[in-house]
Amino acid sequence: MGRAYEVRKASIQKTGAAKGKIYTTYAKEIYLAAKKGVPDPDSNVILKRLVDKAKKMQVPSDIIQRAIDKAKGAGGEDYTEVIYEGFGPGASTLIIKTLTDNVNRTVGFVRAAFNKVHKNLGVTNSVSYNYDYLGVVSFKCDNDEAILDKLIEAGIEPIDFENEDGILTISVNPSDENKLKDTIESVIPNVEYIFDEVGMFAKEKITLEGEDKELFERLLSLLEEIEDVSNIYHNVEL
């Protein structure tokens, strides 16, 4: 089955069970996007898209504005995106995305989570070669041909383009994500994205049972409790 199936079956395990975790993660990402570019959503398309996503996740406007204002000032936090790869129970694998101002602290917490289920972190590329790095969006659509024609006109070649039950899912190279959304919105001006993610998608999924499943779920829970963890990607069918 295609990418739409993967999205529908939650191929990505995202963090943020608690609102506070969601707010903290978006504040960091908004700060970084504003710091790296122009701290104005009207002049920084990456920041604008991120702010729109944050609002959709009901992040309060004052938190969003504080993150942007902080990026305008000198000094402040210096967050770094660090990716960890690990081996879980059974044949499970995980990719953990973190945003941190203290790498030593973060790796200590992540390693401790794996140790508690008697599993280990891996080195760079020990896991990620089994994942695809993609930009993926899903939205309601009743005119696939119009969207596809516009994508071709814009020079975008979809990796996946699939409509199931009126939900169109499109996967592209992450570098084309903003252009993809601009193209979609030229056809459907007020489109509501059901799924909107740039991340790592497992090429093949596995099913865990019994103790392996219990340990994997515990590992996910431990990782999600770490404040610096922003996303968790894995290859397990939940």
How do the strands and helices of this protein lay out in sequence?
Blueprint: H1 3-8, E1 12-14, H2 19-36, H3 45-56, H4 61-72, E2 80-87, E3 93-100, H5 103-116, E4 120-122, E5 131-140, H6 144-153, E6 160-164, E7 167-172, H7 177-187, E8 193-202, H8 210-224, E9 229-234
Antiparallel strand pairs: 1-9, 2-3, 2-4, 3-9, 5-7, 5-8, 6-7
Helix pairs in contact: 2-3, 2-4, 6-7
**Uncertain regions spanning at least 5 consecutive residues:** 8-17
By CATH's scheme, which homologous superfamily of the largest domain applies? Answer: YebC, transcriptional regulation domain
CATH architecture of the largest domain: 2-Layer Sandwich
The total domain count is: 2
Question: Quick recap of the structure?
Answer:
The protein is an alpha+beta fold. The protein has helices spanning 3-8, 19-36, 45-56, 61-72, 103-116, 144-153, 177-187, 210-224; strands spanning 12-14, 80-87, 93-100, 120-122, 131-140, 160-164, 167-172, 193-202, 229-234.
